[in-house]
Each structure stands twice: as structure tokens, then as C-alpha cells.
Automatic annotation (TrEMBL):
It comes from Medicago truncatula. It holds the Pfam family Aldedh. The keyword Transport does not apply. This is NADP-dependent glyceraldehyde-3-phosphate dehydrogenase. It is found in: Cytoplasm. Its EC number is 1.2.1.9. InterPro entries: Ald_DH/histidinol_DH (IPR016161), Ald_DH_C (IPR016163), Ald_DH_CS_CYS (IPR016160), Ald_DH_CS_GLU (IPR029510), Ald_DH_N (IPR016162), Aldehyde_DH_dom (IPR015590), ALDH-related_metabolic_enz (IPR051020). Belongs to the aldehyde dehydrogenase family.
């Protein structure tokens, strides 16, 4: 059960505490933030509404803890991360239960998220030991006009305090994808979890607490975005921001100080289907890619661009598979569960109604109960419909029929987003050329877009983000190069 057993100390009455200075605290605000269960649409959990003063203190102790942590041997940092990963995996059940209640993640996927997170943390430990244990050695006489009198040694040093802001769809996994790299690289972390997902995140943070990290090194502040959001992202004590979420990221990047930013801000991931594609494979990937977690993934297939000659057959195959998706509560492990909030459901409905008005073909009847929206495939979508360009973050997938590959590429590249895309064809030469032409951070050939495995590079172009993620890239991003130059005296004699 959430908030019980080893997690008993993270809750006070019926409000979950925030974590700072190595302990669980009640906010002096005396206020809480309610967390609405998307399924029942009732308050399920409450978390502390931290004050700006409490944020200041968390950042201050993060600063102090980081100085010592940077001097802690790399193997010891790795050892603690492995310990946290093991505790996290051991306690996957209560953490997954929070994900089911807070974000309506289907029960099995919720467990998968926690296990994947443990694996990610362990991989960070191993990768960090490998890549941070190495530096570079340069000599001066490779640059014109220089003698061999300067030896340059480089190593990677931490940035300081990293602010981590993960989104609601992976409040545990996309939190540890920031915590793991930051900590192994010698940084400290201040985590601001999403409101929905905050309790799962607090449970995850407790696993790090139990692993025995020094006090202040990791903190987790909860609260209203209006009170502590800008305050955190513009805080002079923050040395790096790693954010995953929506277009709030664009605002953050405009307001933040001169600190390294890592941003992943969504996508309109296109799936281009050629005439020679294996249509059963395409249908399976479009349904999994478009509808898993009810389409609430940045990497979900968000528009299928299908060659006219195979569109009829493919749409029929997708339709048959969509009919088999189960719809209902996350506790029953249904494929399609309620979307995160009522306003998200309203937004999705707005896109559907716009497509209806403009003449899209509905492959199923549109159905909604509360936040639960039945999976919907829209065929014959045209580019004057909002759904062609906007990200529904819901179980609605548009199919645009195309007459040439170029038309598909043009549509993909006309988007403001550029996260991932995919292409289905048996012709590897064509696939490579299309991949080159698509303006997205990643192109998957013959599979749906996906972030994982978590050590692969993951990045968006255009409005989809700044910087590259994936374990190795995140570790590197959360470090700076430090150079020491040994200046030798000019030899007064000739050797040899
Ligand atoms: O932000 C990335 C997330 O939305 C998608 O991750 O693992 O489902 O591809 P994943």
C-alpha cells in the first residue's frame, strides 16, 4: 500500500511530506496540493504546498551537499546508486500502485515503469564509472607555431545543483533519467515532480533516502507551479535544468539563467507507410505506438501518413486491432484508461470535433465518459484539420492518405515538432533516404517511435527540445570539461 510499510514516514496524517535536508518535512504553508485520480475524478492524495523559503533551503543544502559529493569516489557513488536501484525494484508494487491511482497508468505498465527505472539507475552507475573515469591528454605541438611544451589534461566535472522536472506520464522513470546521470556525475538534485505523479515520485525518492545518500544531496519539493515553478527555474542556485513536458519548456528556456538546459517538449511523431510495407507489422506497431498508455507519450505515433494504394487495407487491419483494445480502469489493466485530466479530455474532444466538422472518416463512433475516451481512428484526415498538426496526447489517431513519399516527408517536416518518426518499408535504401530527409531527432525503421532502450540517444529537433538525452548523453550533459595545462620549460638543449 502507498504510504505504508517502509514508506510510513513519508506521510503525515493524510498529506505526503516533501523531502529536503535528508528528511521528510511538513510545509510551513499549512497548505496542500490535491491530486485528482483521473478515473474517479476525486481527490486521491495530497502533497505539501512548499513555500519559496523552503525551496531556498532545499537549494542551499543541495549546494553544500554537492561540494562533498563531488569529492566522493566514483565507485562509491555508483555503489549507492546500485543500492537505490535494488530498493526501488524491491518495492515496485506500492510505487506502481501510486501510478495507477495518480496517472491512471495500466497496472502492468506501472510495474514496468518502476522496474525500468531501477535498471536505468544501475546502468547510470555502470556507464558513469566507465565514461567519467576517462579524460583526455593533448600535446601542444599539433597546433601550428607550438613546441611540445604544453601538456593538456581534461576531465569531466559536475555542474552543481541540477533541477529535474519530469512530466506526469513517467513521473518515476523520467525523474530517475535525470537523477541517475546527475548523481553519478557528482551533482546534487532538486526534483520538482509533476502534480499528478508526485506521490509515486516521493516513494521513489524514499528509495534513494533508504540507500543512504548524504543529506541534502537529493531533495523533492512539491507545490503549486504558480508559487514555486518560476521561482525554481529562475533560481540563481540552480546550475542546470533538465525538463520533460509540454511547451512550458519553451517559457522556461526563455526565463532561465545562463545554465545548461536539457528539454524534451513533445512531438507529432509521424509514421510513413510505403507501398511495399508489411502491413500486419505496420498495423501492430501503429496500434501499440499510437494507443499504449492511451496515447499519452511524447513518442506515440501521432499521425500515420499512408500511401493511398495500401491505405484501405491498412486502415481495415488497424480498425480490427483497435476493436480488440480493452477500455476501462487502470486497476483492471485495460489498454485504454482515463486520460490525465478533464481539461485534457476536453482538449482531445475539441480536436475530434474539429475533424468531424471538416469531414474526417470516423472508423469508430466517438465515445467519452468522464476522462475516459474510447480509442478512435480517423481516416481521410486533411491538413486543414487541427489533428493533423496538434498533439492530442490521447487515444485518437489520424490517418492522412498520401500519393507520394515526398508528400509524407513534407508533412512531417512542416510540423513545429521534430521528436521521432518512423518509416515502414522493405527497401532499406529507401528507408535510409527517408530517415535522412525527416527532420526529427530519431527515425525508427520498421517499428514505432520509442525512447528506449534508455541508453540510446533521445533528442528532439525544433520545438521538441534542446540537447540529447539517453543515459550517456545525460551524464555528459551534466558535466563540464575541466582542463589543466602543464607548461614545461623550453628545452635549452636538443635531445638525441
Ligand atoms: O518523453 C518521453 C516519453 O513520453 C516517451 O517515452 O519510453 O514511452 O517512448 P517512451
Amino acid at each position: 500500500m502507498s504510504g505504508s510499510g517502509i514508506f510510513a514516514e513519508i506521510i503525515d496524517g493524510d498529506v505526503f511530506n516533501y523531502y529536503a535536508d535528508g528528511k521528510w518535512n511538513k510545509s510551513s504553508s499549512g497548505k496542500f496540493v490535491p491530486i485528482i485520480n483521473p478515473t474517479t475524478r476525486k481527490i486521491h492524495f495530497k502533497v505539501q504546498a512548499c513555500t519559496q523559503e523552503e525551496v531556498n533551503k532545499a537549494i542551499e543544502s543541495a549546494k553544500i551537499a554537492q561540494k562533498l559529493w563531488a569529492k566522493t569516489p566514483l565507485w562509491k557513488r555508483a555503489e549507492l546508486l546500485h543500492k537505490a536501484a535494488a530498493i526501488l525494484k524491491e518495492h515496485k508494487a506500492p510505487i506502481a500502485e501510486c501510478l495507477v491511482k495518480e496517472i491512471a497508468k495500466p497496472a502492468k505498465d506501472a510495474v514496468t515503469e518502476v522496474v525500468r527505472s531501477g535498471d536505468l539507475v544501475s546502468y547510470c552507475a555502470e556507464e558513469g564509472v566507465r565514461i567519467l573515469g576517462e579524460g583526455k591528454f593533448l600535446v601542444s605541438d599539433s597546433f601550428p607555431g607550438n613546441e611540445r611544451t604544453k601538456y593538456c589534461l581534461t576531465s569531466k566535472i559536475p555542474l552543481g545543483v541540477v533541477l529535474a522536472i519530469p512530466p506526469f506520464n513517467y513521473p518515476v522513470n523520467l525523474a530517475v533519467s535525470k537523477i541517475g546521470p546527475a548523481i553519478i556525475a557528482g551533482n546534487s538534485i532538486v526534483l520538482k515532480p509533476p502534480t499528478q505523479g508526485a506521490v509515486a515520485a516521493l516513494h521513489m525518492v524514499h528509495c534513494f533516502h533508504l540507500a543512504g545518500f548524504p543529506k541534502g544531496l537529493i531533495s523533492c519539493v512539491t507545490g503549486k507551479g504558480s508559487e514555486i515553478g518560476d521561482f525554481l527555474t529562475m533560481h540563481p542556485g540552480v546550475n542546470c535544468i533538465s525538463f520533460t513536458g509540454g511547451d512550458t519548456g519553451i517559457a522556461i528556456s526563455k526565463k532561465s539563467a545562463m545554465v545548461p538546459l536539457q528539454m524534451e517538449l513533445g512531438g507529432k511523431d509521424a509514421c510513413i507507410v510505403l507501398e511495399d510495407a508489411d502491413l500486419d507489422l505496420v498495423a501492430a506497431n501503429i496500434v501499440k505506438g499510437g494507443f499504449s498508455y492511451s496515447g499519452q507519450r511524447c513518442t506515440a505515433v501521432k499521425v500515420a501518413l499512408v500511401m493511398e494504394s495500401v491505405a484501405e487495407t491498412l486502415v481495415k487491419k488497424i480498425k480490427d486491432k483497435v476493436a480488440k483494445l480493452t477500455v476501462g480502469p487502470p486497476e483492471d489493466d485495460c489498454d485504454i484508461t482515463p486520460v490525465i485530466t478533464e481539461s485534457s479530455a476536453n482538449f482531445i474532444e475539441g480536436l475530434v470535433m474539429d475533424a468531424k466538422k471538416k469531414g474526417a472518416t470516423f472508423c469508430q463512433e466517438y465515445r467519452r465518459e468522464g476522462n475516459l475516451i474510447w480509442p478512435l481512428l480517423l481516416d481521410n484526415v486533411r491538413s486543414d484539420m487541427r489533428i493533423s498538426w496538434e498533439e492530442p496526447f490521447g487515444p485518437v489517431l489520424p490517418v492522412i492518405r498520401i500519393n507520394s513519399v515526398e508528400e509524407g516527408i513534407r508533412h512531417c517536416n512542416a510540423s513545429n515538432f521534430g521528436l521521432q518518426g518512423c518509416v515502414f518499408t522493405k527497401d532499406i535504401n529507401k528507408a535510409m533516404l527517408i530517415s535522412d530527409a525527416m527532420e526529427t531527432g530519431t527515425v525508427q525503421i520498421n517499428s514505432a517511435p520509442a525512447r528506449g532502450p534508455d541508453h540510446f540517444p533521445f533528442q528532439g529537433l525544433k520545438d521538441s527540445g534542446i540537447g540529447s538525452q539517453g543515459i550517456t548523453n545525460s551524464i555528459n550533459m551534466m558535466t563540464k570539461i575541466k582542463t589543466t595545462v602543464i607548461n614545461l620549460p623550453t628545452p635549452s638543449y636538443t635531445m638525441g
